[in-house]
């Protein structure tokens, strides 16, 4: 009797389920048509790009520990004005853990005052001279430091080969933005369960962009959650309070904090003594994981 019931009822259940509308969870996996841009694209008309179907864009903020992309601010302002979803990526050149942390600090200093829809992304693709183990250690140090600075989990940009042969399982907790050209979907993504970004061409064309541009699809975890955006908003609030009225000075005062620019020879201990605070307070406010590691030019919040 039970078997007969299932034999009759099960096909009806399957047919009914196929007729149901798309669920909310499926809708959340909407794939966005996108591109990623840098100085190499020159002046971009983002309004025209949006009209041509572009919905999301990654913007290069800089490279290494001191190079800011010349079109970074312009691309950010114009992409935002066009109503696109956007995020920032950073070209990493580190060859040691300490360099990785310094470069993460630099990237964070460029973008933490800006609202973002998409995760900050690490572009660490030049691994020449490094073993796989060294590459992983550098990447881990960079990503951990960046997460501390920004308050959200960053993403990893990688080609399909490195995703499967270099980046080990301890990096798969970070959403993957994978590059592989000439295929409809990535053929391999290593230890990741799925991709969140897919760069499918480096020779794309988009209205509003002169010459070739990287083309992408973005979905799911590449976008910040409401909670992560709230955390970023609080960080921006703290830094804007500290930097109001700085007028180009190395130190600026506003509200509960002053903004201090680290000089050669400074330590957290010497700064804390000068301003009547403690190393523990400075590390907590500034999300510093290693109190012995600060760098010249770094901006710090100091309680008034």
TrEMBL record:
Q: Which family does it belong to?
A: Belongs to the glycosyl hydrolase 25 family.
The protein's name in its UniProt record: LysM peptidoglycan-binding domain-containing protein
Residue span, LysM domain: 258-302
Q: Which GO terms describe its molecular function?
A: lysozyme activity
Record has Plastid as a keyword: no
Residues of the signal sequence? 1-26
The record's section on InterPro entries has: GH (IPR017853), Glyco_hydro_25 (IPR002053), Glyco_hydro_fam25_subgr (IPR018077), LysM (IPR018392), LysM_dom_sf (IPR036779)
Source species of the chain: Candidatus Allocopromorpha excrementigallinarum
Q: Which UniProt keywords apply?
A: Glycosidase, Hydrolase, Signal
For this entry, list what GO says about its biological process. Answer: carbohydrate catabolic process; cell wall macromolecule catabolic process; peptidoglycan catabolic process
């Amino acid at each position: 009797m039970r078997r007969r019931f299932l034999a009759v009822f099960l096909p009806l259940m399957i047919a009914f389920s196929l007729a149901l509308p798309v669920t909310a969870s499926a809708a959340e996996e909407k794939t966005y048509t996108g591109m990623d841009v840098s100085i190499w694209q020159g002046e971009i008309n983002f309004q025209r790009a949006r009209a041509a179907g572009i919905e999301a864009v990654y913007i290069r903020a800089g490279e290494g520990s001191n190079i800011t992309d010349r079109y970074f601010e312009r691309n950010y302002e114009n992409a935002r004005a066009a109503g696109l979803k956007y995020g920032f990526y950073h070209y990493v050149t580190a060859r040691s853990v300490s360099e990785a942390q310094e470069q993460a600090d630099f990237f964070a200093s460029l973008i933490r005052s800006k609202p973002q829809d998409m995760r900050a992304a690490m572009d660490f693709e030049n691994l020449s001279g490094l073993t796989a183990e060294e590459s992983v250690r550098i990447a881990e140090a960079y990503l951990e430091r960046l997460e501390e600075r920004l308050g959200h989990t960053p993403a990893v940009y990688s080609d399909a080969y490195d995703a499967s042969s270099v980046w080990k399982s301890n990096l798969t907790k970070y959403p993957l933005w994978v590059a592989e050209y000439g295929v409809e979907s990535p053929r391999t993504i290593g230890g990741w369960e799925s991709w969140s970004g897919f760069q499918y061409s480096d020779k794309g064309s988009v209205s509003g962009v002169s010459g070739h541009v990287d083309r992408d699809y973005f979905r799911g975890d590449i976008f910040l959650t409401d909670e992560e955006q709230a955390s970023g908003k609080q960080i921006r609030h703290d830094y804007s309070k500290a930097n109001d009225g700085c007028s180009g000075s190395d130190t600026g005062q506003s509200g509960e904090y002053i903004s201090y620019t680290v000089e050669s020879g400074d330590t957290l201990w010497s700064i804390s003594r000068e301003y009547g605070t403690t190393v523990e307070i400075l590390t907590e406010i500034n999300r510093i994981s290693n109190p012995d590691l600060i760098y010249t030019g770094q901006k710090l919040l100091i309680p008034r």
